[in-house]
Fold these 4 entries.
Entry 1:
Amino acid sequence: MTVGKIAKTSVDSLSKGPRDTFLWDTECKGFGVKVTPEGRRIYVLQYRMGGRTTPTRRYKIGQHGSGWTPELARREANRLLVLIAQGIDPAEEKRRRHYVASELTFSAVADRFEEKGLEGLREKTREFFKSTLRIYLRPKLGKRPLPAIQGSEIFSVLDGLSTHSPALRRNVFAVARRMMRWAKGRGIIDRNPLEGFEVPAAAPSRDRVLNDHELKLVWTASEELGAIFCGLVRLLLLTGQRRDEVAGLEWQELDRARAEWILPSARAKNGKEHLIPLSKQVIAELDALAGSASWPRKGFVLTTDGGKSRVSGFSRCKRKLDEQVRDLVEDDAAPVTAWRFHDLRRSVATGLQRLRVSSEWIEAVQNRRKAGVAGTYQRYEYADEKREALNTWGRHVARIVHDAREPRPVELADAS
């Protein structure tokens, strides 16, 4: 065994042999340099975890000339000896750090969360979680070890969304919190960094309702959007259903003879199959989209590729619609205040109330989950009431947009 002070000159003078050779330092116990048969010089620390009866272990500090000098290596050896005296094995600690850096990063845990932590949720909800992680959280936190992430870091991400809606900040917070709870429940982290933090402020409750004059402007302006987006806007206005439910409408969900649209549970927001009776005004719009009174048997109704995929580009559509509405407003009239597609749904509900349709019927028309009778109806429960309500609303819309073409009479099968 060769012993001597490890310094640059002594390390540089070491020659290689047919097998590993060592020079052990005289100042720092266990600190040495290994010379491989290839001539590499590697700083090491030899130690035991316990008394003399425990096996010898050897820890690689680093290679000479690759950022490591004898002085830096000795300093690191002394630091490691302090850990060893405290019962911490440097090799185990190094493996732990490597595991954390590779297997416990935010993105690595997010992958496991998406695979195991979203079981039992509806497909749309799972996609919401995945897209929120992908767009807002992974880019900022992806490489950070999850156990090291502080709540303040997550709120820094939320602060970067200050120009977005309050609802988005709450949604991102909710996704992060659920993932952290899942990770804690599986022992990946010892504590949830979002515990004790207040949920971001809720978005103000929306109560925007378009009046009849505004609905007429929207109807008229939709003519300039092209057939597909015109159909989207008018079906939203006539049916009072949710945007994505209308946008994803398929011909196979429709029955022209019975004047019915059966929204499958897989596409309904509340997971409940929903019957929407079709007014004559809705059928006229669907005839226009189909190009005749004979509707296709399959494919998406609102599509730009022959029914293969549903329509998208809602933001662009809305911007163009707003421009057309502004052009229709008289110069001396008040401008139409900001509104969203979802406000059409609220406007239909409010309009039906004005037409003296009962709240229970409106709940049924819009497929809202509600405790009690209105939350338990089956496909054809409230069918007659919903048909009467939507026919009443269709006639009302036809009156307020009197310059729109009157729908031709439609022969309907008995829907009872």
Entry 2:
Amino acid sequence: MKRLWVTLTNDVRLQWRNGFYIVSGIVIVFFLLISTQTGRWDLRWLIGAFVVGNLVVTSFYFVAGLLLLEKNEGTLLAQVVSPLRGTEYLGGKFGSLFLIACIESLMIVVVFVGVKFNPILFLAGLLLAFGLFLFSGLVMVTHYSSINAFLLPSVLVIGFLTLPLDAYLGHWQHWLFYLHPLQPLLILINAAFQPEAPGMLVYGILAGMAWVFAAGWWANRRLQSYMQVG
């Protein structure tokens, strides 16, 4: 537990030093500006899209940037000879970046819909969606040694990961989307703002947890190999 706490605090310092919190502030200001142009529109149905879009940056790209930064600075190599476990390294990244994502997402919700929502469903969906994008980002970035090589193929991966979101925005439904890892998480997030059938909530929780645990297992394996090579 002590190693995890030290890793978490070190990650927060690293993110602060490299401007991650400045980017977070810019994101919040961006959504504040959008809210000034929407007037009295009811945007509850768009909150899921706003949150997922924000997570693409805060989890997927932030964790990829951190890993490449540590690799280039040589600190990733130092982790190999330290007693730090891979799960503790992942836990530090997860906890520190989720803090940013949680603050940003709650700000987005309050700005657009106020405080009338189900916080339990929202945080459950947010946590699982964050995990999916973070672990996917880790798996993806371990195949590359520079941010330039990573960026272009990452767009294709994000395009796949957000397919249900595109269909949702286009009001297009198909049963195949229920096999996609983002679909149950999108259902949970949206259920915090509009009624959803109990069966869909059970599907959202169980399927969402299964996908995130699978992604976490894969990310841990890829990370171990990456650290040995790095």
Entry 3:
Amino acid sequence: MPGTIAPSPADLDPIIATFWQKGYAAASIGDLVDASGSNRAELYAEYGDKRGVFLAALQRYHDWVRDAVLPYFAATSDPLARIRGFLLFFSQGQIAGGPNCGCLLNNTAVEFGGADAEIKRIVTDMHASVAAFFAAAVAEAKRRGAVRADVDPDMAARNLLATAIGVSVLVRVRPDRKWLATIADGAVARLQ
């Protein structure tokens, strides 16, 4: 399973973890300085301000999900297992944000809504990538006869995306893995 985010030249990983655990509003510049091992002047010189640090961290996280997490699950031979695995990924506590942190992008969507155009773009780009991942898995499962013939892969992908977002938010307030697994299992069962 793709565990932690790989080290980056910009040393964003500890900053990502801080935003992931605390959210944008609750993470202070002091928290980011402590996490990164940089000083304020270095952070401001590289990113401009707290928002700049956050945008860089959010984009790095986006790239990690797109370039490491989705391909990891796409390599799973069973398309329904692929779907279930991704639905449960952010509830498993094996990621850099720590246990019960959910998904940084979805947490950000909840925190900001659509108030910031650049953040909205990053979040919606990721949601489009995840929906495409789900649509491809459903289409493959349909070709194999593993889902009902009347299932539309694009519509199913939107429903699975909503389920994934829900699971990634629910894990923060109800981190019961068995309960969350029933949600993933139900989503897969509705396709069959």
Entry 4:
Amino acid sequence: MENKQTTKYAPGFEDAIYKTWEESKKFAGTPDGRKAFSIAIPPPNVTGRLHMGHALNNTLQDILIRSAKLRGMNVKWAPGTDHGGIATQNVVEKELAREGKNRLDMGREEFLRRVNEWKQLYGGSILEQLKKLGCACDWDNIHFTMDETCSRAVTEAFVRLYEEGKIYRGHRLINHCVRCGTALSDIEVEYKDEMGKLWYIRYPVAGEKGKWLVVATTRPETMLGDTAVAVNPEDARLAAFVGKTLILPLTGRKIPVVADSAVEAAFGTGAVKVTPAHDFTDFDIGVRQKLATIKVIDEKGTMTPLAGAEFAGLNRYEARKKVCAMLEEQGFLEKTEELKHSVSVCYRCGEAIEPMLSLQWFLEMKELAAPAIKALDDGRVRFYPGHFQKPFLNFLGEIRDWCLSRQIWWGHRLPVYYCRDCQSRSSGEEAGVIVSAEKPSKCPVCGSADIFQDPDVLDTWFSSGMWPFEVFGWPEKTPELEYYYPTSVLVTGHEILYLWVARMLMMGIKFAGDIPFSDVYIHGIVRDRHGKKMSKSLGNTIDPLKVTSKYGVDSLRYSLTKQAVPGHDLLAAEENFIASRNFMNKISNAAVVVEREGFEAVVDMAKAESLADRWIVSEFSSFIKSAEDAIDSYDLARYARVMWEFFWGSFCDWYLEILKLRSGGISAGIVRRIFRETLI
């Protein structure tokens, strides 16, 4: 028989095969009597193209989906994209800046039109990229976190929580990003170590000439908003100062010395300045000690008039320089030390966070966290690997109220309205507030029609937290929701355990009445060949589709899977792609042998007669068991390894070589079936 097949792996056929699968609805899921296996895809942000992390995450999900389908389960992998909130708005703003435009000049309506154009372009592109990666998603069930279904779900959840008294509006200290111009939740803040300075400042004791209390601080500009100095009540060195009055340098304002257990006696001199409007610990001290709050830095990072005429209008860093210079000139600066310390920064843009007293919307979390903690303690939710569970439980146990409101334009607008007439008669935080799924025609209190909507949007993680049940139609009790929820497994990276996984767990139990998934499979980060985290700024990012165009989709998928030890990072190195392509070549070569020899598949492998046939059947059975065990324990690196060992070692290097030595080269027909089933 003439051999017309190439012996090298030719990836060009992959698109054609995928198109056949898609057109034949191989991936569509409809409820029936079989056991369900479902995954709600971690929706990629519509910020641009997919990266290697997406390639890894979706490859692992695809393996789980296809394995479940092979075992006869009714599978549904619900795909979709996330609007991305701050991340997407920042990307579009950068694009506009290149055109010499900014969103404030454009206005909200025009800016949102541009963001929607971006979403249409990249949202569709992302879905096509997932197809290029071979993902077996149900493409008849695509969602976007701001589509009609998801928007209705988000509004419904917010209104319910407000009516239950769990969502409230209040003045509280929040994390504010000056660059993004918005509040952030506690877990949207990252920390980086950097070298800074520790300034030691003399605070004169009122009425005691020549006597002062030295205070150490890393932020001298905020001293202009100090309302006390605090010491630890157990610190005998400073006990005599408690109850005395100090003169705040540069301002002449009098402030008290208070005793508070939050003070770390070992830091600096043991005495700390208390600025309740600009520090979380200070805010708590201020509440306990009934101190005033003086906001000296505004939302743009500019000093306010309350900072004093000499500083008002300066940005916070200019003010720092001027404060330090004046302290030194007036003899209040005792010394300065170099200090390595941790600085809080925005998780999206890297700008230093400004703690700030602000009027925002919050969600009480303790009550929502309790059933999530119980689900983990009862073993209904399991982590793979298990060592992630303890810190996750610690986070839930210490959870703080969630700041929901964001001062950006792209996102779910708060379903909150205000009556101007009611607000004009009262200055209370709840004055004129109307929370409603639809804009009311008039105020339910006074009947006024002068109603306007809150300009803020919801934190993007609020809608993302509802993803596992909103993709199946919640709040409607759809057949899909009843059948496919809870989902079977969540595959995710460890960097969003608190941002996303915790929210999904709490929201799922609260609104859908059950955990959103039973298993959480946590993979590592894809790094470059040197182990560095990939980023555009370092210029070491790798486009997965460029890899597939050179080596093929299966080569990329296999190279990632064989390194996917749960919880461990992996490398995107060319040598890994080459090794995986060589494995694909081995499979292609084996296919040539099978076709050339004309092997026919037997129906019953138990009828194998020759010693070689019985041996390979035994090896194949062991391989199938090992592969299924690896998949069931979410050790897909082991699954890839046993596949390599069986196919390359047992099947190709031994069994096929034995067959070549047989008279006429004909076997009992085991080879074709094993070859076919191994590939499946």
